[in-house]
Design brief:
This protein has helices spanning 2-34, 39-47, 80-97, 108-119, 125-138, 145-159, 185-199, 228-234, 282-286, 332-335, and strands spanning 49-52, 70-75, 101-104, 168-171, 207-212, 239-247, 251-252, 266-267, 270-271, 274-275, 277-279, 294-298, 315-317, 338-343. With 352 residues, the chain is an alpha/beta fold. The strands form 4 sheets. The chain has an 8-stranded mixed β-sheet with strand order 1-12-14-6-2-5-3-4. Strands 7-8 form a two-stranded antiparallel ribbon. A two-stranded antiparallel ribbon has the order 9-10. A hairpin with a 2-residue loop joins strand 9 (270-271) and strand 10. The relative contact order is 0.18. The chain crosses the membrane at residues 7-28.
Length: 352
């Protein structure tokens, strides 16, 4: 019996040692991937960072910014601050560039419902909730109280605009029930938008939209399909991409069969500095920001080190998800030109 106990004890301690070694390797490899702040990058970023409070700062943009056809914001779904940011960017672009067409990660039927809501004489909260529930089919992490509040605010803003400037939603995504695999979802979105531009004669209109982060990458990474933004550039649309990254923030993760979810459906494991997702070079941005802030970084100035490196465009998923590895010879500004860093964002709030 003593011999059996000794064997069990040794086996148990061996398992603990293996787990401890695995955890240590995980922590060390994460730290090595993230790296320490780099003086070359922090020196550049300190001259090209802009605090975002109630509005997007105009000073962040040079005259070439106005020359784009399409402006895209890419998010990791589930963070409340991104809904506020999306509204701020839409209103900023509407005021600055007259953008009135919002391209959305939803199908045309849902977009039409949303346009009906925006056009009504009074807010129809029931209709808006139907729209949000329809969005939940495609993007469960986005369907939330904050999503409803965003469109409620846009409704109010829209009402004070002349008819010629009112915001209209273009749903460019595939129908949720369209399971055909002959074309990727991103390629379908490009084709759908091209058809809308042609049919509605929008050739001279600038467009803006919020999408999942991968969709706004302007170049195809290694081992990945062509993102929406890369397809748009290939189709001749001048495109500017913003990506939103988070630190010290909570994500809304609805219950699902693929991944264990806490009872409150909120997690804080998917920030840009880990542990489940890592963004190479994020510590350069972290060292220049403070908690409870939103900061915009311009990456494409003429003296930018991001024009010669892959910092921030290389992203690693440690357990689930897809790594984003740029192809040899590509640089960060081939993928996106601006980064928002959100510190201490709350999770989206589940609808009752």
């Amino acid at each position: 019996m003593k011999k059996l106990f000794k064997v069990v004890k040794i086996a148990f301690l061996s398992i603990l040692a293996i787990l401890a070694a695995g955890l240590l390797y995980f922590v060390i490899s994460n730290k090595l991937f993230l790296g320490n702040p780099d003086k070359e990058y922090t020196a550049y970023l300190s001259k090209n960072k802009y605090s975002v409070t109630s509005e997007i700062p105009t000073a962040a943009f040079d005259p070439t910014f106005n020359q784009a056809d399409i402006y895209l914001l890419g998010e990791i779904h589930g963070y409340a601050a991104n809904q506020v940011l999306d509204k701020q960017l839409l209103l900023f672009l509407n005021k600055k560039l007259g953008i009135k067409y919002y391209i959305a990660e939803m199908d045309s039927t849902t977009a039409q419902q949303l346009n009906t809501f925006l056009a009504k004489d009074s807010k129809d909260e029931e209709l808006l909730q139907q729209v949000v529930l329809a969005i939940r089919q495609r993007i469960p992490q986005q369907a939330s109280k904050e999503l409803m509040e965003k469109w409620s605010d846009i409704y109010t803003y829209n009402k004070q605009l002349p008819d010629s400037s009112k915001i209209t939603v273009l749903g460019i995504d595939k129908d949720f029930n369209d399971k055909r695999t002959t074309i990727t979802r991103d390629s379908a979105m490009v084709a759908n938008l091209q058809q809308m531009v042609q049919k509605q004669k929008l050739h001279n209109e600038k467009l803006y939209g919020l999408f999942g982060l991968y969709h706004v990458l302007q170049q195809t990474p290694q081992a990945g399909h062509k993102p929406l933004a890369a397809g748009l550039k290939q189709a001749g649309f001048k495109t500017i991409s913003f990506v939103s990254q988070t630190l010290d923030s909570d994500m809304y993760l609805p219950k699902n069969p693929q991944f264990p979810t806490p009872p409150d459906e909120k997690i804080n494991w998917v920030n840009a500095d880990g542990p489940l997702m890592l963004v190479k070079g994020i510590n350069d941005l972290k060292t220049l920001t403070t908690p409870n802030t939103v900061t915009l970084f311009k990456l494409d100035a003429s003296d930018s080190p991001y024009r010669q490196s892959q910092q921030l465009s290389r992203m690693k998923s440690t357990i689930f998800g897809t790594n984003i590895v740029p192809k040899n010879g590509s640089v960060t500004t081939d993928f996106f030109q601006y980064v928002f860093l959100l510190r201490n964002s709350k999770a989206l709030t589940k609808l009752p």
